[in-house]
Amino acid sequence: MPFVDYLECSRCQQTFDPQELHSLCLDCHSPLLVRYQLDRIKQQDLKGLLPTRTPDMWRYFEVLPVNHWDDVVTLGEGFTPLLPLTRLGQRSGLTRLYVKDESLNPTGSFKARGLSAAVSMASCLGVRKLAIPTAGNAGGALAAYGAKAGLAVFVFMPDDAPTANDLEVKMAGASCELVSGTIADAARIVAERKDREGWFDVSTLKEPYRIEGKKTMGYELAEQFRWELPDVVVYPTGGGTGLIGMWKAFAELEELGWTGGRRPRMVAVQSEGCAPIVRAFEQGRESAEEWTTPSTFASGIRVPKAIGDFLMLNVLRESGGVALAVSEEEIYQGIREVGASEGIFLAPEGAACWAAVKRLVAEGWIGADERVVFFNTGSGLKYIDAIQSFEKQ
Length: 393
What we know:
Blueprint: E1 4-9, E2 15-16, E3 32-36, H1 38-42, H2 46-49, E4 82-84, H3 86-92, E5 96-101, H4 111-124, E6 129-133, H5 137-149, E7 152-158, H6 163-171, E8 175-179, H7 183-197, E9 200-201, H8 210-224, E10 232-236, H9 241-256, E11 265-271, H10 276-282, H11 309-318, E12 322-326, H12 328-342, H13 348-362, E13 371-376, H14 384-391
Parallel strand pairs: 5-13, 6-7, 6-9, 7-8, 10-11, 10-13, 11-12
Antiparallel strand pairs: 1-2, 1-3, 4-5
Helix pairs in contact: 4-5, 4-8, 5-6, 8-9, 12-13
């Protein structure tokens, strides 16, 4: 790995050899983070090379963990559009409102980024069988990238996940088992069977590399804004890999000297039916208790307990950000409003972000002239059955 220095525990700072296969920290069982030799990268003029590279997330190869270009497992993920929302901005009183539209990724969601990086590294490190508990989109992405790499994939998802997710897993030749309950119940099955079955668990933050793929959203924001960062980033939060990953990217960009010292205020958005991070943030806690009876048709943020809870809460507080929960009706109306105003069919998770933006503007937390980006993490087309079910309620 030319520029990877070591893996570091996000809690106790113990270090690990990046040439070996790792899951969580061996001592405190917390997520591991990849650390790079950023001083060496400064000498490579990577920033100057970017205009010559392909428009995908691997344009940032030197700050990604794969050793050789030939080892990258890619379907063209990343460098998604950053779109100005003129009509919505005028309606809400914002002069600089944008959406980062992740629906144009392979498999139709931002999960493609993390799984491209994770599958690339798993393949490099000799893994042949991968397993994942998922709310839906991550399972579809793992199935696709596993197929591309020639690896066996085993997916476990709630039996009420969107039909599109179940189908895309099966069409990619992976095994898909529907589970009664939530992603937490799916995770317990993977944990119980992985050693016996010989699976490597690529659950959110239980391996070091999904976060590296997700952090490229932060690099892209900087590049697309000509190396300035927005004032506010609004992000739907389940497992939190994207939120944590972007904050990691902003720190790396600053150390590389590509951006200044001002970082965005980060906003974590959840549903009122499943809001463990919001509750922990409001109570001033360092970790989040599991949410009982989670319920929301925004399935990607129906995560009752996240292993990276303390990291998400740290990001929110370090950035001067906030966490808030929106109602199911606000999410549904957000899908309709953005579609009718801007022609973008948001996933429910993206619509939750738009609902959060409106509320924060109304409360004066977001100023009229601030540069605001909210994320649409997937295509609304993958949620047709969930949206129709909500309409019938």
